[in-house]
Amino acid sequence: MLKDHSQLQLSLSPYQGLYDAIIPEDHLLRRIKENIDFSFVNPMLRKQYCENFGRPAKEPEMMFKLLFLKKLYDLSDEALISSAQTDMAYKFFLNLEPEAKMIDSSLLTKFRKTRITEDILEELLKETIQQALDKNLIKSGTIIVDSTHTLASVRAKSPTQILRDMSKQLRKEIYKTAFELSEQFPEKPSLEAGLDEEIAYTKELLRILEEGIESCGNEKIQKLSREMKELLEDERLKEIRSKEDKDARFGHKTATSTFYGYKNHLAMTEERLIAGISVTDGGAPDGQELPKLIEKAKENGIKVTEVIGDMAYVSDDNLEVCGKEITLIARTNTAVAAAANGNLEEGFCFNKDAGMLQCPAGELSTRVEKRTAKNGNTYLRYIFSKVKCRKCSQRENCRVGKSKAKERSYSITQASEKNLERLKFEESEYFQERMKIRHRIEEKNGELKEAHGLRKADSRGLFAMHLQMYFTAFTANVKRIVRLEELAME
């Protein structure tokens, strides 16, 4: 149950004067409290509470501010509550009395899981942009786009190893608490066994033990059995690299280095305020998220007239989305230019971080060769790993995977006459000048990672990554609004 403000009884503490004596005028939390209106939180979250039943809930605004402090200072839930109990600046920001007792840290987890939805996260980001617009702090229609990766909170394993570990855990628990069932174990596959063999063994193990597991009454064994069945039934089994985080995927930082986790795609205004966010697994191509970022920036109140990004964002689809109303400031890569001519099949894209072509399964080409055809045309030939293609689950639907040639390759034509006008624009003085501010979003990405903990995921799963990214962006926007207001007053 959520109380109305009229029901809240705020007593005047005899220690209230401590705040004025201890917290300096230029303290960040005092400046934020004076410049940012958090009153939007209670109305926004009211629909998440029962109006008439249940125990009185902690005020959403205070819970929300605690999550803000968590991101502002990059703290764990336990460290946050511990600091909030003794730090007067925290209590001042939270509108608490100096002697007030803090909540248990477990309530933060409950608040995140039961009160926050994706719709609320979108409203949260929109609120910061609206407050900036109301203060006339956003003056241009330019957005700068880029992505930054976040490492998963778990270690990646192969699907084979995941199944092997789960069946091992099940057998171990049976040996401990239901030994009679161990006599039915089928023969284990060898350590060199592949995924198909491991899947067959796991299915056979569960089939043989099904009746015994149901009748043994051991909840741990039954839970393990259910988890194994769910994993075997998952269509994404061959792509999953962790049973704890089934949404994370491998992505490429460079041609030779990868990461396991998620990508956060950002649209930032010229004033360094994040106006649009899209969160995907680590293998998602950057360019495909541009239409969504533009739409979200518009929904949040930005009248988008210009988009600045890197070469990943130049494609026929994106140029069509921008049309004549939005100028796309991004350099064309030869592979992307070929895609603009319709030469790339669906699922293939150019990975700008690695400088290589990426197949539908997310694998990078190992090298590229530039060749000249007999008719005088030049083309790029991207070579893929024959071993990986042979093992790929998507090979039957991929022209590279089905190839019987000695090398698995994909050839694309370089930029044609159709793209010369675009290439000419990229050489213009205006284009060169506007590209000079693209570095601002890279600096913002660095701030989000180094100051606010975006380098590694707080929890597991795609929604948890949404939650972390949006609260991190909200925190960065609040800091930036305060700074912009101070600059305007100077």
TrEMBL record:
Residue span(s) of domain Transposase InsH N-terminal: 20-113
InterPro entries reported in the protein's UniProt record: IS1182_transpos, Tnp_DDE_dom, Transposase_InsH_N
Listed Pfam families: DDE_Tnp_1_6 (PF13751), DUF772 (PF05598)
Domain annotation Transposase DDE: ranges: 359-481
NCBIfam families: transpos_IS1182
PANTHER family: TRANSPOSASE, TRANSPOSASE DDE DOMAIN-CONTAINING PROTEIN
Official protein name in the record: IS1182 family transposase
